[in-house]
């Protein structure tokens, strides 16, 4: 299988894998603007997830283009 | 008396209705075909698809159900944030596959795939019925949200409770007549273009309110969390998650993430996209939408720092928190200028209308394509499209009737029951896309086992009373019922398929060996 598919799959899995580790981020400190860590940590991962997902999409799209020209 | 909020609300609603009707002209094709009405001719680009699918997300679930649950039950409802994050990873894998197969084989619905793959009418009809039934409480929830907005909007003008209720009901019926009419004429195009307006208004409102509210209260977020701990429900924990709820939290977010793209309305939006790139990039950008959901969740805590909002909700004490579904409208009304209240309320109001339209369209699609057409093979495309249009109107009013019959708290908890039902369609759709191993009778047996145990466990968890709790006690602590039911479903499907494949193969293989 093309390596790009494996990397794309990993990029998609990372955010969910991180947030599955609930005890790791289930705490009060450090706070951000008065928000408990439990809250803002998960929000930050929304943004990271979007970046990783778009990267995975670009990888697969480039794979499809190569496939057409080959 | 200041009528600004009412005037802004009405003017914007008129604009919304006009956009809905005119959108039937957008990239117009042959409007008499079902494909054109229900999938917008499969011509939606990445941006429109982003708004349309995102529109499924910003529903009354987001601004009524989740904030009210956070308000009443605490941090366990933060599960909505990892849920939306994870669900788009699920979608990026499954929906791109489904889109490609749909274009190749002309599927309109997930059930079209099931029927084509397993050649079983029984299985296809079961999956179609599950989709239709699971959508109904979801639509009812949208109406509960719209009702909450009208209630707070009209509150300053009406002091007699009886009149206020009558006005709420009439306003609700009028807006639904508009919704039904434009769903009928414009189909998915109407929903997609009005979704742009809806999301624009909601996103801007959420950002403004989230910045403004902490500034108007002393001590900001930190202070609000302290107040929540003393004033909120004695059973709830707000700043962090109670460690005994860890598995409940995980099962709620993982199962909800798996469930969203099994809902017919979510699949419908994806299949309306014009190419696989539009599906991929619209989906990849969607976690950004989750930021709005995250901020709205916090409203359930912020409200404790705003006495005027607590008054609107009817807060009395930690034992009597009042009507939690009013958290977001009450917070906006208490902190923002009148014209802005009208603007934000319209956003929330059509935030219920548009998803309800998308859901009714997808129900109509299933009923026409996957149930009626099974019994009436002679339908022309034009008749098919007509039946679907009228069915969408029927479903909208069925859901409306739901709300008059069932009190608000029920509708919100019924949405979780819908999630338990729709999850049971995962084996034939998501698993079936990637393997030929599954047997059609095994899938039917698994479906029966999953639906049966799911409904039983939910009833048992509520002592066979009204369904307000969707978590059940297990050896792994509290878990979302959908997780247990899906596990049972999958076990039945795999064991039965294994047996079926073994028996099927042996006669054909033996002659080759001999």
List the defining traits of the structure above.
heterodimer; A: 70 residues; mainly alpha; 3 helices; B: 514 residues; disordered C terminus
Question: Can you describe what's shown?
Answer:
- The complex is a heterodimer of chains A (70) and B (514).
- Chain A has 70 residues and is mostly helical.
- Chain A has one domain.
- Helices cover 79% and strands 0% of the residues of chain A.
- Chain A is built from three helices and no strands.
- In chain A, helix 1 packs antiparallel against helix 3.
- The longest helix of chain A is centred in the C-terminal third of the chain and has 33 residues.
- Chain A is elongated and about 50 Å long.
- The model of chain A has no long low-confidence stretch (mean pLDDT 86).
- With 514 residues, chain B is mainly alpha-helical.
- Chain B has a single domain, classed as Sodium/glucose cotransporter (Up-down Bundle), CATH 1.20.1730.10.
- Chain B is built from 21 helices and two strands.
- Chain B has a two-stranded antiparallel sheet with strand order 1-2.
- The longest helix of chain B is centred in the middle third of the chain and has 56 residues.
- The C terminus of chain B is likely disordered.
- Chains A and B meet through helix 1 and helix 3 of A and helix 5, helix 9, helix 10, helix 12 and helix 13 of B.
Number of domains of chain A: 1
Largest sheet of chain A: none
CATH fold type of chain B: Sodium/glucose cotransporter
Structural class designation of chain A: mainly alpha
H and E string of chain B:
HHHHHHHHHHHHHHHHHHHHEEH
Helical percent range of chain B?
Answer: over 70%
Low-confidence stretches of chain A: none
CATH architectural type of chain B: Up-down Bundle
Q: How would you spell out the order of helices and strands of chain A?
A: HHH
The largest interface is: A-B, 32 and 42 residues
Overall, the morphology of chain B is globular
Mean pLDDT of chain A, rounded to whole units?
Answer: 86
Number of helices of chain B: 21
Distance from N terminus to C terminus of chain A (CA atoms, Å) equals 16 Å
Helix content of chain A: over 70%
Radius of gyration of chain A: 16 Å
Please give the oligomerization state of what you see. Answer: heterodimer
CATH structural class of chain B: Mainly Alpha
What is the count of β-strands of chain B? 2
Distance between the termini of chain B: 94 Å
What is the count of β-strands of chain A?
Answer: 0
